[in-house]
Amino acid sequence: MFLIDSELEVLTAFRRNLHRRPEVSGEERETAETIIAALGETKPDAVVTGLGGHGVAAIYEGREPGPTLMVRAELDGLPIEEISEISHRSEIQGKGHLCGHDGHMTILMALAKGLGQKRPAKGRAILMFQPAEENGAGAAAVLADPQFTEIKPNLVFSLHNFPGLSFGRAALRAGPVNCASRGMRVSLSGKMAHASTPEDGLAPTFAVASLLSELTALGNNGPLDEDYTLVTVTHARIGEAAFGISPGYAEIWATLRTLTDERMADLVTRAEALVAKEAAAARLKVTIGY
To answer: Which ranges of the chain would DSSP assign to H, the alpha helix?
Structure first.
């Protein structure tokens, strides 16, 4: 281990500072500035900024020519209120590092300290802090950025925290480890009516009630193997916040998860078929977006 106790203490404080100041996808300006400042202490050979948004990449050149290896973490937090009593809890209302990206950035910063002490024997190492992972936009934006062409790696490593794994341990496996995730937004449009005469409208009430359970039931929640599927309804809204109106519009947001692309395609097909069935039964117009 190349880190001494005092450096671990500095990294602990660094992570807690990131945890206090979460920024959501596309807004990670302050986080990127914090990363850039901390990377400067490790004296990288170059730092690429504004990568795919607020992305940052630090480059450490090896002593001899060779392949380029990249290790990736994420910058963004989630639009979720952190309810906690810890001293370093989020100071930003409605935002929190509740997926562990503050920890991922700190792991890369520890690696930066190691690379600052000892460069690769061959090739170059790149530490990439990707923006907008949570909303799915960041990876595509980074790949489309002309700056990425200059640092395109031969090999990329990514990592994720693993709740429940014993302290001090890491886990590896062949093939996919984490699920693919796809956000599905269903819009159901009918016709509003007065609450005293709901028969004059087309309300999505019963379609929503059915879909909340039917979509969830598409997940098998079994072992994390190639057949794994999970559907989590994350948000639902129906009508207006009023007592006098029978609703004419509703939305359901759901997160679909599978371990393989093939299973995701199948899950999307089945989810869309359920939505179409319920919409047709209630004579509603339906729009599905991802």
So the answer is: 5-20, 29-40, 101-117, 138-144, 146-151, 205-216, 261-281
